[in-house]
Write a structure and sequence with these properties.
This protein is an alpha+beta fold. It is 41% helix and 16% strand.
Length: 423
């Protein structure tokens, strides 16, 4: 069982940094600059800090859209012109154009040489090859994408997002209006969810039958064989067929970014209207770029208006905690998906709020998210607090038994993490 005593022993033995990785330095520096510009939640950041945050988002989007292997093949002087489009071969080890040794590893997200330790994204590679600034390399590559000279990954991501937006609307209509959605409507009513909350999170329902309901809808809407939203099913007789990826009786919450792009769903198998929705959620996402998925938190902020929005943010253990607390009027809560310690995701989190609180179950029945990301640097550790919640139910147990005001009071009474660890 994971207890405070065991975690404290680990911290003493290995240092708190052993409990979670550091933020990457560029992101950390940017967050510190942005944070220093505002003293309290709701203050507008100075124009130069707004500009800096938006520039970071622009660069992240560009890295998402580029294929590093394609850029290396296009610009590396060690490769012949005839192999410029042979990006698959570059995913193996190649001669490094910077040191000449065999040891360059290239993938769609990044490159790295094991000898001279040159590494980075497609932007860093282009800048280093041509001896230009990072900003100039970014502008050139963006222009090549826009002109169609580089294919990149933009079209594939946009195509997937368009299909997912279509799927969202389809599943929402099934939940709201169709007979197939009755079990989901009854379940949400039992949970006390208002129509405004359902609409806010664009909750939908995918019935178990027929197995190709969404596929038929997408084909009718003009999409040609939507394989991205299908999966292979093999029955007991060994027969194979493609069925809807998100179907099978699932309650669905869309995963979106601040620009309105859709990247998949959080799914919960619904077998009865009495089912608990607190646990059992799985994340099913589509993106050509892994980096894009790493940036998402739920609910995702919109920049720059949501910069430094909250004085205190509760980091939830499950997506359903976010939905239920929003339903109760508590909106300063987010969920970090499967990887709470990813530095790109944490940069988004740190730009969204000033202080953070995590819930702790004294009997150890639930994960302790706090320990996944607490020690990025000493300054952030001091801004993390811990609130105690009831066992076997946590925050939602407290909400259901005592109401939203009790949750707010528990958050306000949370103690700083460094004091809690030493208690």
């Amino acid at each position: 069982m994971l207890t405070r005593r065991n975690l404290f022993k680990s911290a003493v033995t290995f240092g708190l940094s052993a409990l979670a990785p550091w933020l990457d330095r560029p992101a950390l520096s940017a967050v510190e600059k942005v944070r220093q510009g505002c003293e309290s939640a709701g203050d507008d950041p100075p124009p130069e800090l707004r500009s800096h945050l938006l520039e970071m988002e622009y660069l992240e989007n560009l890295k998402d859209d580029l294929d590093c292997a394609e850029v290396v093949a296009f610009f590396s002087p060690s490769l012949k012109r005839g192999s410029w489009t042979d990006t698959d071969s570059l995913r193996m080890t190649r001669h490094c154009p910077f040191c000449g040794e065999v040891g360059l590893h290239v993938g769609p997200e990044s490159f790295r040489c094991k000898w001279c330790e040159a590494e980075g994204s497609a932007i860093e590679f282009h800048a280093r090859v041509h001896g230009i600034s990072h900003g100039e390399a970014s502008a050139r590559l963006d222009g090549l994408l826009n002109d169609g000279i580089l294919r990149g990954r933009r079209c594939e991501n946009e195509h997937a997002s368009r299909m997912l937006v279509e799927a969202q609307g389809f599943y929402q209509e099934l939940l709201r209006e169709k007979p197939e959605g009755a079990i989901a409507r009854q379940c949400l009513a039992e949970q006390g969810l208002t129509q405004s909350t359902i609409k806010r999170f664009r909750i939908g329902y995918a019935p178990p039958e027929p197995e190709n309901l969404l596929s038929n809808h997408l084909v009718a809407a003009g999409y040609v064989i939507p394989k991205l939203l299908q999966r292979l099913h093999v029955n007991e007789a060994g027969e194979q067929k493609l069925i809807d990826r998100f179907g099978g009786g699932n309650l669905l919450i869309p995963i979106c970014d601040s620009a309105g792009h859709s990247w998949g769903f959080m799914k919960h198998k619904l077998t009865s209207w009495r089912d608990s929705l607190q646990t059992g959620w799985t994340q099913d996402t589509l993106s050509v770029s892994e980096r894009r998925l790493r940036r998402l938190i739920f609910s995702h902020p919109a920049w720059p208006e949501d910069f430094n929005r909250h004085k205190m943010l509760l980091v939830a253990e499950t997506p359903w905690e976010v939905v239920t607390l929003h339903n109760a009027g508590i909106e300063n809560v987010v969920y970090l998906f499967d990887c709470a310690t990813d530095p790109v995701r944490l940069r988004t989190l740190l730009s969204f709020g000033q202080d953070f609180v995590c819930a702790f179950d004294p009997k150890g029945y639930r994960p302790v998210t706090a320990f996944r990301f607490v020690e990025r640097l000493e300054r952030e550790a001091r801004q993390l607090s811990v609130m105690t919640v009831p066992p076997k139910g946590g925050v939602l147990n407290l909400l259901q038994s005592s109401g939203g005001q009790a949750v707010r009071e528990a958050m306000s009474q949370a103690i700083p993490f460094h004091n809690w660890m030493g208690a």
